[in-house]
Fold:
Amino acid sequence: MWEWSNRLLRKKDSEESKSLLAAYNDLLLQNAYAPEPLKKNVSAQKNSSPETTPAPERMQQLLNQRLEEYALNNLTLKECVYDPQTWQEMSSCFTEYQKIRKIFLKLLGYSYASECTKAELTKADIKLLRQSIAPENYNTHIKIPFDFGGGLDFDNLCLIKTHPCHGIIHKLIDLQIENGFLRTYKKIYIPWFEGKIYHD
Structure:
């Protein structure tokens, strides 16, 4: 996943990685739209094969079990097909994303104050939102990544706790990378919810 939430866009990693980005590199190498030059990263998925990769039904069961274990009761799984984008396409979205992110945070502070309170955000937190600043331990999260069909709009953004919620979402995504599920099926199941602020 292209993780832009609260950080600057980073260049491609050259070291071995188990991240989603490493898996993307493998997929891009198989795709006609792959940016050049692009070196194949070695990761845990290298040793996986279609024979050992869980079937989609089994993967859904496993992910739902994890969601239950983590008590993320308001998250459901959304099946998202991989729609590869080049580095140039992703970079062109970055500037626009930063603008929309600031407007989104301000929108939450002014128009969704009651929902912020339900999510246990304080008055000080709401004040920060109105300044386009994410409160401590909160992240602006892209629900569906752009290369999985997500749009650059308010409906695809949400405010979520960095720890543990945001971290767990990425753990569940990485789980589908390390065993070769994304590479085999060209899709993943993304933990998702309908709303602008995640809370249980």
Confidence is low (pLDDT under 50) at residues 6-20, 26-44. Residues 20-85+137-192 form one domain. Strands lie at 76-81, 138-142, 157-161, 187-192.
